[in-house]
Amino acid sequence: MPTLASPAYPTALGRRRFLKNLAGLTAAGLAARGTGSLGGAPAPEKRLRIVVDADTANEIDDAFALARALMEPRFQVEGITSAQWHTQEESPRDTVGLSQQLNEELLRVMNRADVPHPIGSNHPLVSAVKPQPSPAAQHIIRKALDTPAGEKLIVAILGPCTNLASAVLLEPAIIPKVSCHFIGLRHDPKQRLWSRDEFNTNNDPNALDTLLNTPGLEFHLMTASASQSLVFEKADVDRRLKGRGGVADFLVRLWDNYDRAWQRRVAPTKATWVMWDIALIAAIARPELANAVTLDAPPGNLKRPISVWVEIDANRMREDFWTAIERCLAGGR
């Protein structure tokens, strides 16, 4: 996920009228799944087959987002894969191992032993044409090749693009069978400027280039610029979840126990947290909660259309999360 906890940013809905015009630019050739406007879209009739790839031990929002995905009745979760996050200040050597450990703990407390959870690569791509083989990459390949005709496997990437890029390089036959949904990069819609100075991007820039430069690969982007307005307050999380067992207390403890050098410097009280990754999962599950437009890929990459979420309804995404977790807890998880 993009890193650095940020202060609460007010949602921009209703204040940037030009974004409504941008919404009309969405190309008919991009799949409707994962794109949409804030006016409301019907729920998909079929469950969406999805693999969520996460650098879970990097920040706490990954676990919240994974929990949200596992709670979503529209999703058929085909796997939770782990990703590296080696550029964080004072990061350990085995970052993917820590992500894997948290993935396994989350699946255990949610009683989801049925969900495959292969480990990803602990290293980024050394070039845009050389993969980093891993069980996660092989799992993505198998699930993509198993995708029924006329459908696509969604791969939601909450960290670097290492595992999906490796899968594409190892087996190009999956390209038309995969829909990549990535949270990363930054984009200023007013200035039409891109920035690659962003955590997920920096953890494997070669992997991102691999995906952006692959013709025929469906690509949806939730930018850090759009997702930064989704902020949770610790006091609210404690009030809603503390002492309720299962995944509720798992998430509370994860927030309580998070202790990293960057966080001690930037957000020592941990009173709020930007839930970057929930924004991506919520936008896939409920397209009406985000506004997507079609833009050319960033300069320096293959000039082709990609779908970019430029605005989210942060308030409704928060409400959606709490509704989902209440439904989950009522079911005993």
Tell me briefly what this model is.
The protein has 333 residues and is α/β, with parallel strands linked by helices. The protein is built from 13 helices and eleven strands. It has one domain: Alpha-Beta Complex (Inosine-uridine Nucleoside N-ribohydrolase, Chain A).
Task: Set out the fold topology.
Layout: H1 18-23, E1 48-54, H2 61-71, E2 75-82, H3 95-109, H4 135-145, E3 153-157, H5 162-170, E4 178-183, E5 186-188, E6 193-195, H6 199-203, H7 205-212, E7 218-222, H8 224-227, E8 231-233, H9 234-241, H10 246-257, H11 261-266, E9 272-274, H12 276-285, E10 290-296, E11 305-312, H13 314-330
Parallel strand pairs: 1-2, 1-3, 3-4, 4-7, 7-11
Antiparallel strand pairs: 5-6, 8-9, 10-11
Helix pairs in contact: 2-12, 4-5, 5-7, 9-10, 12-13
Give an overview of the whole structure:
The structure is a single chain. This protein has one domain (18-330): Ribonucleoside hydrolase-like (Inosine-uridine Nucleoside N-ribohydrolase, Chain A). The chain is 37% helix and 17% strand. The protein contains 13 helices and 11 strands. The chain has helices at residues 18-23, 61-71, 95-109, 135-145, 162-170, 199-203, 205-212, 224-227, 234-241, 246-257, 261-266, 276-285, 314-330; strands spanning 48-54, 75-82, 153-157, 178-183, 186-188, 193-195, 218-222, 231-233, 272-274, 290-296, 305-312. The protein has a 7-stranded mixed beta sheet, with helices on both faces. It has a two-stranded antiparallel ribbon with strand order 5-6. Strands 8-9 form a two-stranded antiparallel ribbon. Strand 3 (153-157), helix 5 and strand 4 (178-183) form a beta-alpha-beta unit. Helix 2 runs parallel beside helix 12 (276-285), helix 9 packs antiparallel against helix 10 and helix 12 (276-285) crosses helix 13 (314-330).
